[in-house]
Amino acid sequence: MVALLVSLRWRQLRHQLSRNPWMIVTLIITGMIALGLLAGLTAGLVALRFAAAEGAVTALVLTGSAIVIGWWIGSILVSADDSLAPERFALLPVTAPALLPGFVVAGATTIGGIGTTIALLLMLVGWSVSLPALFTALLMIPVAIVTCVLGARVVSGLLAGWLARRSTRDLVLTLGVLLAASSGLILNLGIGALTTVTDVGGAFSMVAEVVGWTPVGAVFGVSASVAQGDVVTAALRLVIALATVFVLWFASQRLLASRLVSPIQSSGGGQVRSGGLLDRMLPANSTGAVAARSLRYFRRDPRQLVNIVMLLLLPAIFIGIALMNGLQEEAIGFAPAITLIPAINALLTGTIVQMAIAYDNDAVAMHILTGVTGAADRAGRLLGFGLIAIPVTVALCLATCLLAGRPDLLPGSLGASLGLTAIAAGAGAWVGSFLPGRAPAPEANPFGRGSSGGVQSLLAMIIIGPITLALGAPALGFAIAAIWNPGLGWISLACGVVFGGLALWGGTVLGGKILDRRWPEVLADVSSES
Question: In which domain of life is the source organism classified (predicted)?
């Protein structure tokens, strides 16, 4: 059974790679990033090994615990995309005790499991501060892997029923993205807090000592105690590590048995209501219909709702970081620069518009069947997005100008922000016609494959970025110059309107022509499950 499940997992991956070349590119890029992280880990461990042996032990306990926590939390993000989900075996004559060993080995031999094993082997460089600790760490690697895999299964199993509800999945997606977006601000606060600690090394050592007694860190605390020559503590931590594996195994088996006889099914999103006033305000043609539907998606689809929230949150985060670092102080003398922060939304705008079709998934077939032209599709999506983005951008520009105490900079702020946003939107409309990106299918895990658009969106950003900077340079340049000569802000506004309008027109016309030729290919791209 173990060999069968492992081979099944790898055959599924091979099948997905053979059907979707973009997934191969994604896998290669992800692998390169992982190799870079592993190289950084190795370099850091070598440096600590020879420069500060005690610090190396502390770092190893904290790093190992972070790996375990990453597995457990990560299970929430990928559980709905599990190709070996228990529900797939519910109709087969198999039992939980027979399946669980195969699930554990299959989880340990995934790409993530192999990467974790390599990381744990590289950590032996740090454990070499003591030969007994090195030998102990080598023996504890299988225990650490099993702890990661079993813990991930328990967490995903406990939350499976909760995450099966549409409202819960939407909430998890929204909170997860907002937390990730706020990581820079949180990191800034953490660094600020560390500066108030007199003995940073001692603080980390104390945290590692405590973590070494917990289920997530006991497996690494054993080797740490051996390195310090404390055999009694090492034995107690070994008991905790083995007890953790036993409890997780028992819990995993019970959860698996339950899901084999009572499969969990995802629930939908509730009643759909008419647009009413919205439909009457928009043009009574294909463009208006696409715009109205886009506005509904921005309100009801959690992925797109997060995009709109990010238009407010991203500038707010940068403003907060700027204020925390004293940008408002007279000593800096550059407080008016915060009036340009709303222009950062151009980074989001290009991707939002570019991936608009991907969010539709196979529903975009209705455009083909009803004869919607590519230009109408592009114009409708830009109109729907603009009805939200323009008020948000204007409000942000007003807020930053008032915060800086420079209302005279409003024209320049509007010129740079509206101009760059419009140019990015136009470029996204054009690029999205031949690189529509990838998004999880409806009712699928919103954090699953394609949740960030895949390699297509990465390539799209590489194309959209230079276009936005090149066409938006006049508006941005005059807005910067307006800090010293406010009259130039009106020139920035004029440049933003002119170049932004041209970009929107170009994205609509050029993107529409490409869509008219590529509708079948686009439908195949966005609706593929591989």
Answer: Bacteria
Question: How distant, in Å, are the alpha carbons of 148, 285, 337 from that of 42?
Answer: 21, 60, 40
Q: Which of 465, 398, 391, 397 is nearest to 428 (CA)?
A: 465
Q: How far, in Å, CA of 374 to CA of 33, rounded?
A: 37
* Residue 333: per-residue pLDDT: 44
Q: Is 440 exposed, middle or buried (0-12, 13-18, 19+ CB in 10 A)?
A: buried
DSSP three-state, residue 438: strand
Provide the pLDDT for residue 328.
Answer: 44
Angle (nearest 5°) at CA 75 between 303 and 212: 130
- Checking if the pLDDT of 272 tops 60, the result is no
Q: Mind giving me the DSSP string for 30-83?
A: HHHHHHHHHHHHHHHHHHHHHH-HHHHHHHHHHHHHHHHHHHHHHHHHHGGG-T
- Pairwise CA distance, residues 457 & 397, whole Å: 28
- Separation of alpha carbons 252 and 102, rounded Å: 12
CA dist list (Å): 348 to 60, 90, 312, 315, 465: 37, 42, 11, 11, 11
This prediction has a pTM of: 0.64
Residue 509 CB-half CA count within 13 A: 6
Cα distance between residue 500 and residue 418, in whole Å? 8
